[in-house]
Amino acid sequence: MDKDLIANSNSKVTSFIFEQMFHLLTIEPDNLATVGRGTPLPSFEEFVLMKFLDSCIEAFSKSNKPFIELNTPLAVIGDLHGNFFDLLRIWKDIKDPFNLKILFLGDYVDRGEYQIETVTLLLLLARQYPNNIFLLRGNHEFRHVNGSHGFKEAVCARYSEELYEKYNQAFDYLPFAATIDNNYFCVHGGLSKRLMKLRSLSELNEIIKLPFKDDNDKFISDLVWSDPVDWAVEYISSQRGRGHRYGWNACQAFFNQFGKSMIIRAHESIDGGFKSNVNGLVLTVFSSSEYVNPTSQAGYLIIDEKGEFHRFFLPSKQFVSKTEASYENLVYEDDTTNIDLSKSMEINKAQFFEQITKGSPKKNLALTVSKTSNFRPFLASISLIRRPSKGKLTGRRIFHDPVKNSFKAIPSFVGDGL
């Protein structure tokens, strides 16, 4: 398939997702309780999310750097951990979010109920507004963490491991650090001794290459795993098993070498949304309420043009749980690519029939092929229904990949009958 055609198709998918999700950011806080109830949450087909993530990867590969330099006015948002409703609340609370930049400090997935919705919306905003929305990478945007703390399970329960990997490929292009007005150093975790070997922080763009996939790199582990402690002098080992704990002398040496006055970071759950360490040299921001306990607040920070800090707090509030939320299954039709499915079937006829008859006597099969004048690119869906003499109907979907010209069957549904 032509690269320009693929890029155009991916861009259209991104616009489609934008149209379906952006309206949620306009809902007034008092009406957010209707989201997932009267106002259904959007649910996208897997091939739509795959193409959207391909679009993000393409955009991030051209524009993102490991280290970025930002200016005020700017909002800083800490860990969200799948708290979709706090993301929506913070966005509305900022009042006019497009009149300033917004920096997210990482940890978008794992633990929370709405991980897919949260990270999809964040990637969408970063993709569509690259001059306003910036996403740093946290320790939970690495496979060795999100593979065992909830994100992989959430994605694979609804979709596939291929989609889970595609999200991580997008994470591989996220920056690790930022400065604000060349004065404040922003990072998910904290400092590393190896930073002191640099002449300037801009050298991070030379020594770190995106996409970055190494889960075991000690320098990067320091940046995304380390914590400040008031009683440490320089660097000591961390109880987390990765990164370090750093103290007063470590901060002062860093500030003296690079001309900075404060570290703004996330990574630690804070009951009240903010915590200062090391005599005010380090500020931790945590932006997910009800994380520490049912009454814990979410916090976010705005630094204005004068460099003044404004702290904002959002009290805990109950919203619909994911298990009870209503979703709208959205169907996307792409008019950019026509696929002759019958021709592809003829080429791979043996493989196709092997898939659809696997484990099912032919006499019990009912095969339907979705045919439209403009067939969906990348994944063509064919429904297979097994009709046993007793019990429930079971189904699979046979996905066709026109690039590889191959078919793959996955479980789809169980039903009482047609």
TrEMBL record:
GO cellular component: cytoplasm; nucleus
Single GO term (MF): protein serine/threonine phosphatase activity
Hydrolase among keywords: yes
Catalytic activity as recorded in UniProt: O-phospho-L-threonyl-[protein] + H2O = L-threonyl-[protein] + phosphate
SMART domains: PP2Ac (SM00156)
Alphabetical keyword list: Hydrolase
EC numbers on record: 3.1.3.16
Pfam families to which the protein is assigned, alphabetical: Metallophos
Name of the top EC class for this enzyme: hydrolase
Coiled-coil blocks: none
Homology family: Belongs to the PPP phosphatase family.
Protein name: Serine/threonine-protein phosphatase
Source organism of this protein record: Tritrichomonas foetus
